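Progress against Task 2.4 (sequence-to-structure conversion) is shown through the following example record, which the project officer requested during the mid-term review.
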Amino acid sequence: MPSHDLQLLEHVASAALLIEQGQVSFANAAARELLGAHIIGEDIRIAIRNPKALALVATQSGGTAIVDGLSVRSSRWQITCHVLDGGARLVVLEDLSVRVSVARAHADFVANASHELRTPLAAILGYVETLEDPKAGDDPEIRNRFLGIIAHEAKRMQSLVSDLMSLSRIEAIKHDAPTEPIDMIELAHECAGEVRGRAQLGITANCESAIVAGDRSQLAQVLRNLIDNAVKYGKPEGTISLTIETTDSGRMALAIHDEGDGIAPEHLPRLTERFYRADTSRSRAAGGTGLGLAIVKHIVERHRGRFDIASRSGEGTTASFILPLLRQTSFSS
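Structure tokens generated for the chain above:
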């Protein structure tokens, strides 16, 4: 293979190997990173220890094969073998792992969304059919109770559809950095006022204002979701605290703490996964869709921030996020 062609292959993103007389005579940068720089000069059976891949390289006509576990156990690769003049082989390896992972996540998301929608829909249809029975439909007490259940389940479906649409919109613009100046202290007071009468919520801050570059409606959605969670899962008579702190490094940290039962440590890493619930029955009873924290995480990341949840069983939960400041005003001494 001409040297200038090998120089071009050196800069190709996919891993590429040239095999002559059963040995690796050339490996580009991507192949050396994947398989190790030592593979040059080695027997192909040592460089690639995958029977399916080796069988493809050994064929007289070349072709394509999909192999698993070439780099790590969960990885998937497409291997293409081109037979060159003189019997040399050009082997190109393309990593399909991310594509497969995205496809699997999409399939799981559709399956979960379908399940979450089917559950209230089945209840609605079931109670409607019962009300169509003259014996049940003519009883005012039964009719009113069933209509209440139907309304509850319909609102649950409405909330889920709303969250699904919200998540879709957020993902569609996740690469567009928001630019509107937002005072997080002012916004926190606004959102806290919406739960007045339902919860005791106190706000403290180490500054007079904390201005971030943001999308006001999305940041309000973050605060409402986190405050709503604190109200739902905190103690009925407990206090919810919201603190805002700015740092000299130009960041703002906002934390919301409740005095609820807390969350077991094994659940914490998965709480921002779509439809994941630490307590399924309690979450559904409280009206949760299973998407709230996923939405929060996506919005915070769009604002170039970081979201975190800390909790211990019996000691409450703290949900917090950090955003870069546009500017801040400190309290005068």
